[in-house]
Amino acid sequence: MKNLGILLSGRGSNFEAIAKNVLAGKIPARIAAVISNREEARGLALAREMGFETRYVPSQGKNRETYDQEIVALLKAFRVDLVCLAGFMRILSPAFIREFPRRILNIHPALLPSFAGLDAQKRALEYGVKFSGCTVHIVDEGVDTGPIVCQAVVPVKDDDSEETLAARILAEEHRIYSEAICLMLEDRVGIVGRRALRKK
Ligand code: GRF
Question: What's this model's pTM, rounded to 2 decimal places?
Answer without folding.
Answer: 0.97
